[in-house]
Design goal:
The structure is a single chain. The chain contains twelve helices and twelve strands. The protein is an alpha/beta fold and 321 residues long. The strands form two sheets. A nine-stranded mixed β-sheet has the order 6-7-5-4-8-9-11-10-12, sandwiched between helices. A three-stranded antiparallel β-sheet has the order 1-2-3. Strand 8, helix 8 and strand 9 form a beta-alpha-beta unit.
């Protein structure tokens, strides 16, 4: 096993699907209860592909592409509905996709067309790695994966796709692990790509993330995912959807509850900030902590612990902090 691969451990989630655990980050790539189920219920289902007619093209960005699970699930759902994709992806590390495509369990999850598309995106070895890889399929469309720091590659997409994307699938590691990808600045950049009725979808329901999405001028809603996909029994949401337009009436989305709205008035809602788009994780976390302390001292927010006690919640999980 290579040194790169040793930091990523293949795991089978409870629904039998393939995932990875990152020892470097200290977190799994998916919910332990189901990588495939999570992709379908937290990303594909709330995208509501039925909003498009057969033959239409859906413009999509997959942020933190990883093993390609979310994109593969979307491809298969689009194929069933006769839709085409104009697709982009952002990813730093080629190792997750390489490990996934080399694993028999992962291969068995997908149709041959989906695997062929993922294989086109796989980086081959060489002295110098390309900064992009692409896929093309006569029936399903085409796509480009931008390799490297998502913060820098995002600016390239903004030049070409501002206000054009129908879907943004945001699946970075949790905010405490990768705060640079949940900052006000990065999420605002993602929001700028959305078409007027486009949707950003994420498993995360952290107050800091929802607050940042609102600061970006987006409307937000909770994803009403199956309780079986929540990390803990007291989890209240399957994730978050955001859009430049109202999300009222969407079948799998709901307005934030009073409890969730109060969460956004607690200390947990202090957003992550990365104004240079190059901040280190430790610096971003430290600056947020300072801002939280200042807000508490000024009496501007409620302690998150008090909010949790009032609503009878246990120890918070990463996607809700």
């Amino acid at each position: 096993m290579t040194s790169n691969a040793s930091r990523l451990e293949p795991r089978q989630t409870e629904d039998g699907s393939f995932s990875l655990f990152s020892h470097q980050v200290g977190e799994g790539f998916h919910s332990g209860r189901g990588a495939l189920a999570e992709a379908r219920q937290k990303f594909v289902a709330p995208a509501e592909l039925e909003r498009w007619s057969p033959g239409d093209t859906v413009r999509v960005l997959d942020v933190c592409f990883g093993t390609g699970c979310n994109t593969a699930a979307l491809l298969e759902a689009a194929q069933q509905r006769g839709l085409r994709l104009e697709w982009w992806g952002l990813e730093l590390d080629p190792e997750p996709l390489d490990l996934a495509l080399s694993h028999g369990g992962f291969q068995q999850q997908w149709q041959p067309t989906s695997l062929a598309i993922l294989e086109q995106l796989r980086l081959k070895g060489g002295a110098s790695q390309p900064t992009e890889s692409s896929w093309s399929d006569a029936a399903l469309g085409h796509g480009t994966l931008l390799w490297g720091d998502a913060r820098q590659r995002l600016s390239e997409l903004q030049e070409r796709q501002r206000g054009c994307l129908d879907l943004v699938l945001m699946d970075a590691f949790s905010p405490s692990r990768s705060p640079q990808l949940w900052s006000v600045e990065f999420l605002s950049g993602l929001g700028s790509l959305l078409a007027p009725r486009g949707r950003l979808l994420t498993y995360c329901s952290a107050a800091a993330v929802r607050q940042a999405l609102r600061l970006a001028g987006l409307e937000i809603a909770s994803i009403a995912a199956s309780s079986g996909l929540r990390k803990q029994k007291h989890d209240w949401s399957g994730g978050t959807a955001a859009s430049p337009s109202s999300l009222d009436g969407a079948a799998l989305l709901r307005a934030l509850s009073p409890m969730e709205e109060e969460h956004l008035r607690s200390n947990a809602a202090e957003p992550y900030r990365d104004p240079t788009h190059r901040g280190e994780r430790s610096v971003i976390l430290r600056e947020r902590q300072k801002a939280q302390q200042q807000a508490m001292q000024a009496g501007l927010v409620e302690a998150t612990s008090s909010w949790r006690r009032r609503w009878g919640l246990g120890k918070e999980s990463d996607n809700h902090q």
